[in-house]
Amino acid sequence: MPRWIIIRKGEGEFSVSLIAVFPCQKNMNIKIDTHSHSIASGHAYSTIREMVAMAERKGLEILAITEHAPGMPGSAHDYYFANARVLPRDYNQVFVLFGVELNILDRNGSLDLHPAYIDEMDINIASLHPHVFEDEKSKENYTNAYVNAMKNPAIHIIGHPDDSRSLPDLETIVRVAKETDTLIEINNSSLMARSFRVGARENIITILELCKKYKTKVTTGSDAHVDVDVGNFQKIKEIFEVCNFPEELVVTTDVSKLIPYINPKIGKQLSNPFLSQAIGQLTSQ
Question: What's the pLDDT tens digit per position in 84-125?
Fold first, then answer.
């Protein structure tokens, strides 16, 4: 039997929308966090090793540390990303992807990091942050910004397209993500009570329903800015349950499902059967 949950209450009048909840997705085992930040992002608070230690403690197989690109005030310089090749990826029980959360700057999908550096990163998220967006603020421009970013083959993930302050046409975004084989991020931070993003819960429910319609795949990101939030998927799991979202469309439940959506150079390492087997054995201990 389903249970029923109120997902929306209107302002100024009593108005509710109800959705049936089936418990089949409650225990989805999410093994990968594709969005987090260390102190290099400027407004985050933990070191790489602190983030990795928490990922290990929480039993993650892969953690992506995706620093804000230089367009975000206070974030890392271009050279930080240019030098990422010196960073180790294999931290015993956790494999770390070093990526970037790029800022989409305008309707043309312009990004704030040199393409040569973007191409070298393990995983690339393109997000829209209202205070960094340089174009006229309109739904049409937000939609075109996301669409043109997704046409860039270096972009693996569209980050948190759930903020009503900069909301695109969601059906267009989900449809183009399917066409370009780009992942849509479901962001746990957006769903937290402390989040500054507006209307995220309703927007994410809409996104998930559209992803089911178009068979568009999603990824899960904690968007952790401090180590204790690494691998925090509580709100994501709850909303997957609300939407009865199929695990087959979630790429972070198995390493093999994520590999097609990262830099092929690092994907080859993760495709190594010896490494994959070792990660699985270590995280199960």
Answer: 999 999 998 999 999 999 999 999 999 999 999 999 999 999
7 domain residue, yes or no:
no
The parent domain of residue 240 ranges over 28-283
15 lies in a domain?
Answer: no
The reply to whether 6 falls in a domain is: no
Segment 18-55, tens digit of pLDDT: 444 444 455 799 999 999 999 999 999 999 999 999 99
Three-state secondary-structure class, residue 80: helix
CB burial of 156-188 (b: ≥16 within 10 Å; e: otherwise) equals: bbbbbbbbeebbbbbeebbbbbbeeebbbbbbb
User: Are 25 and 237 spatial neighbours (Cβ–Cβ below 8 Å)?
Assistant: yes
Query: What does the alpha-carbon distance between residue 87 and residue 96 come to, in Å, rounded to a whole number?
Result: 9
**Is residue 9 in some structural domain?**
no
Residue with tokens 């990660």: 279
CATH number of the domain to which 41 belongs: 3.20.20.140
The predicted model scores a pTM of 0.87
Rounded distance, CA 118 to CA 136, Å? Answer: 25
Helix 170-180, helix 200-214: angle, nearest 10: 40
User: Total structural domains in the chain?
Assistant: 1
